[in-house]
Write a structure and sequence with these properties.
17 strands, 2 domains, Elongation Factor Tu (Ef-tu), domain 3, FAD/NAD(P)-binding domain
């Protein structure tokens, strides 16, 4: 890169790393984006593409009364590459934003590769960079870099287990036994495929889950069985009570079966996973069952007798640091301020939240390199709420979190409004106004 110019390094080509690199480059900073794939892969990635989605293809809710919907709109105001790319790769998903994962990755990769201020290096980083740098290597950080981070922090990083749901080929499903419907008619009203179970079929399904063989944990995972509560394996939910799945991913509310005119006892939903509608994701069906057991049990579901699975479910180990103990409010490591963290390893959960921390880290580093002392976003905004979670949570009880209304400070005048929907609509409007003002204050 040219001598005399401001330079930065971003390690990790996932959503957070790509967003951070984009924000830096758009601010006039020359960026080296280092990604170890395809030279070194992970247990869950399949390609060398940037921003590869390895779990769900959904970026979740997209409305103004949904906290993650507000976060996405804020990101659009702040010129997010990730949200813009997701919009261009969107597939039908009712009230959610879901994408064709291949189109999405390709769109992000092409944008990063074509940016004149970004250079991509395909190699593994085994030591912490000297800085200025952003570490966005994700929950599956390579062992060498993970050890380097552990040595700096003086204690082992926390960890939990995350899960991946199966994907089934559309042409292998019996469409006569499924029906198209979105919960409460959202989106086009028929964005999901639904497999309806009566009470007896549901009870038999639960029996099968509880008795099924599971994949044993690997040696490096032994003794660490902390799942993220927002993404529990279906068999773990079944172990918590026979009705748990009926009030979770298999809830039938808003999904009346048109063949009977009644609400089923339970429903398995399938969400479109690609633009061609050839692949469908089993919503909320992350699992640690063996592959043989997944095929056997899932083929007992209505419409699944001949199901061909493009991908089966699995569990993988995620790691994150204790952010309130180790990060400042601009995502710098307290023990190495030249390095910022971004993405899931900070202790946020979800694609959108990970990308948002990349956006925040990229902008904060750009400000620092250009001599600006900019404040963090207001705590009433979704971005400010994420930083509030990472900076103000109790270190002794810190756990990953998606964006929620509870993370965002509620202005006193809005707290007095009656009714959850009016209060959230007003809060969303306030948050978007504040994020625009914050953006203007920073001179962008």
């Amino acid at each position: 890169m040219s001598a005399g110019k401001k330079n930065a390094v971003v390690v990790g080509g996932g959503l957070a790393g790509c967003e951070a690199a984009w924000q830096l480059a758009e601010a006039g900073i020359d960026v080296t984006l280092v990604e170890m794939r395809p030279q070194r892969t992970t247990p869950v990635h399949r390609t060398g593409g940037l921003a590869e989605l390895v779990c769900s293809n959904s970026l979740r809710g997209d409305g103004p009364t949904n906290a993650v919907g507000v976060l996405k709109t804020e990101m659009e105001i702040l010129s997010s590459l990730i949200v813009r790319s997701a919009r261009s790769a969107a597939v039908p998903a009712g009230g959610a934003l879901a994408v064709d994962r291949d189109v999405f990755s390709r769109t992000v990769t092409e944008a990063i590769e074509s940016h004149p201020r970004i250079r991509i290096e395909r190699r593994e980083i085994v030591e912490l960079p000297d800085g200025p740098a952003i570490l966005a290597t994700g929950p599956l950080t390579s062992p060498a870099l993970h050890r380097a981070l552990d040595e700096l922090l003086g204690q082992s990083a926390l960890s939990f287990f995350d899960a991946i749901a199966p994907i089934v080929a559309a042409d292998s499903l019996d469409m006569e036994k499924l029906y198209a419907a979105s919960r409460y008619g959202k989106g086009d009203g028929a964005d999901y495929l639904n497999s309806a179970l009566d009470r007896d079929a549901y009870e038999e399904f639960i029996d099968q889950l509880l008795a099924a063989d599971k994949v044993p944990f690997k040696d490096f995972e032994a003794g660490d069985f902390s799942y993220f509560e927002g993404c529990l394996p279906i068999e773990v939910m079944a172990e918590r009570g026979r009705e748990t799945l009926r009030f979770g991913p298999m809830k039938p509310v808003g999904l009346d079966d048109p063949t009977t005119g009644r609400r089923p006892w339970a429903v398995v939903q399938l969400r479109q996973d690609d633009l061609a509608a050839e692949h469908w994701n089993m919503v909320g069906f992350q699992t640690k069952l063996t592959h043989a057991e997944q095929k056997r049990i899932f083929r007992t579901l209505p419409g699944f007798a001949e199901a061909r699975f493009v991908r089966l479910g699995m569990i993988h180990r995620n790691t994150f640091i204790n952010a309130p103990r180790f990060l400042d409010r601009s995502l710098r490591l307290l023990k190495r301020p030249s390095i910022r963290l971004a993405g899931q390893m900070t202790g946020v959960e979800g694609y959108v939240e990970s990308a948002a921390t990349g956006l925040l880290a990229g902008r904060a580093l750009a400000d620092e390199l250009q001599g600006r002392n900019s404040p963090p976003p207001p705590t009433e905004t979704a971005h400010g709420g994420l930083l509030r979670h990472l900076g103000e949570s109790d270190p002794a009880a810190f756990q990953p979190s998606n964006i929620t209304w509870g993370l965002m400070a509620t202005p006193p005048d809005l707290a007095r409004l009656r009714g959850r929907r009016p209060r959230r609509l007003a809060h969303a409007e306030r948050a978007l106004t504040l994020i625009r003002q914050w953006d203007e204050l920073r001179g962008r």
